[in-house]
Design a protein that fits this description.
The chain has one domain. The chain is mostly helical and 181 residues long. It contains 5 helices and no strands. Helix content is 85%, strand content 0%.
């Protein structure tokens, strides 16, 4: 268990480093991007908004997996617990991306105003940070969705195997000489 906690901490530190590097790298473009031109901020905001659609799809898919038939009560309980945990995390991600996108949009708007601090630089850095985070979270969500689909396929296949076995047993019992008797 301690190894898992250390691995999780290491992944968080790597993610933080990557996000900060992304923010710094995008901040380097500050001298080349004119804040008065609204095309660049809109493209950057669109990149940050993209995970919102993926999160909405994942929330829907997790809702569908709870409806899978052919599970025992214990399996259904464990599945519900896991799905609820995942959906809760997805709602937090959704809230984060909505809030951060709004913050970045306000930052880019502030960059067009004549204010004392360099809002464009900070908006670009925040966008770079969030874009890296969005990319990593998108891969994680895709991986989790693939696991859900694999689980759904296993449960469906197991259910079909049970039905086929029951049909074969029924046919054998009907064909046996003792049943004609």
């Amino acid at each position: 268990m301690a190894v898992q906690a250390q691995n999780k901490k290491a992944r968080v530190w790597v993610l933080l480093f990557l996000c900060l590097t992304g923010g710094y790298a995008l901040g380097l473009l500050n001298d080349f991007i004119d804040p008065a031109k609204q095309l660049v901020p809109m493209v950057l905001i669109a990149i940050v908004v993209a995970p919102i659609a993926l999160i909405a799809q994942a929330i829907s898919k997790y809702g569908e997996i709870k409806k899978v038939k052919g599970l025992s009560r214990e399996e259904q309980r464990r599945l519900d617990e896991a799905v609820n945990t995942q959906r809760s995390a997805l709602f937090y991600y959704l809230f984060f991306f909505l809030l951060s996108t709004t913050g970045v949009a306000i930052g880019f708007y502030a960059a067009t105003l004549k204010i004392s601090f360099n809002a464009n630089l900070w908006a670009l850095r925040a966008t770079g940070f969030i874009a890296v985070f969005a990319t990593v979270i998108s891969f994680k969500i895709y991986r989790d969705l693939a696991k859900v689909q694999d689980y759904e396929a296993i449960v469906t296949r197991r259910s079909e195997e049970r039905k086929a076995k029951a049909a074969a047993l029924k046919k054998l019992s009907e064909d046996s000489p003792n049943s004609k008797g």
